[in-house]
Amino acid sequence: MTQFQDQLDENAATAYLRPPAVHWAVVLIAQLLAIVAAFGLAPRAYWALIASLIADVWIVYLCVWIRRLNPAFMSLFWCVAFVALELAFTVPGAPLTVSKNITILATALVMLDLALWIVTIYVLRAELHFHYNQREPIGLYLGGAMTFFFSYFYFQYHLRRIAKLKEADSS
Questions:
Q1: What does the pLDDT read at residue 94?
Q2: Is 81 within a domain?
Q3: Is 80 within 8 Å of 120 (Cβ atoms)?
Q4: Which of 31, 59, 111, 155 has the fewest CB atoms within 10 Å, counting from its CB?
Q5: Is residue 11 situated within a structural domain?
Q6: CA neighbor of 165 nearest in space, from 6, 5, 21, 3
Q7: CB neighbours of 19 closer than 8 A, spacing ≥ 6?
Q8: Long-range contacts of 156-159 (CB under 8 A, 24+ apart)
């Protein structure tokens, strides 16, 4: 490796924000504890809304964090669309009479929300790949199946590893 390449790697390691160094299990346990606490404090009609919001906090945080690395990244847009649609059908409202049309609409909204969730996760995955393989060449690889099944917990596993690596390099 040339001296220029060493300097480039050093500058890239210090030029960008360090990723969040929280262990993925801490994120999971914090979410579960927050949901249980909210269920004990909130009226039953708000449980679905509160559980949705608590589950979305970390993915929104990751999208905001990656957007700070590169304002052109679009995962935040998709994440906001996902959360907005999710909120639209989990907010308690006036009771609706059950009909075939309402059921079809609700099913379509759930399917659209699921699609937006998948788009958000894979756009974030592509942005992480781009950043940690092009701009800050660490050699990050995120598997497609692991991304699908474990989403942001899987990302957080790798981001913590990268944060520790950057901390060791800066010491």
A1: 56
A2: yes
A3: no
A4: 111
A5: no
A6: 21
A7: 65, 159, 160, 162, 163, 166
A8: 156/20, 156/22, 156/23, 156/24, 156/27, 156/58, 156/62, 157/24, 158/128, 159/19, 159/20, 159/21, 159/62, 159/128
| Helices 144-170 + 100-130 axis angle, to 10 | 40
- Tokens standing for residue 97: 């009479």
**Token code pair at residue 40:** 């004990």
130 lies in a domain?
yes
Does residue 5 carry a pLDDT above 50? Answer: no
Q: How far apart are CA 104 and CA 128, in angstroms?
A: 36
Query: Under a CB-based contact definition with an 8 Å cutoff, are residues 137 and 6 in contact?
Result: no
Say which amino acid occupies 42: A
Domain count, the chain: 1
Residue 77 falls inside a structural domain: yes
Handedness of CA 34, 35, 36, 38 (dihedral sign): positive
Q: Which two three-digit tokens encode residue 147? A: 């991304």
Q: What is the DSSP string of 58-78?
A: HHHHHHHHHHHH-TT--HHHH
- Find the domain containing 127 and state its range: 18-170
